[in-house]
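Technical note accompanying the year-one report. For the benefit of new consortium partners, we illustrate the data format agreed upon in the data management plan: each record pairs a sequence with a structure-token string. No post-processing was applied to the example shown here.
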Amino acid sequence: MTLIANDPSWWPIISYFRIGSYVDVACLIVVVYDLALTVGQEVR
């Protein structure tokens, strides 16, 4: 069983990693968008 702690000292760390995850997803979206725009030129 997973133990979930409700200790406020962990909240800044959890928030930091959550924001980092959002940044990772945003970077992935930018790379996929760039690939979608340039794949025609890459094939030629």
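Partners are asked to follow this layout when depositing records. The radius of gyration is 18 Å.
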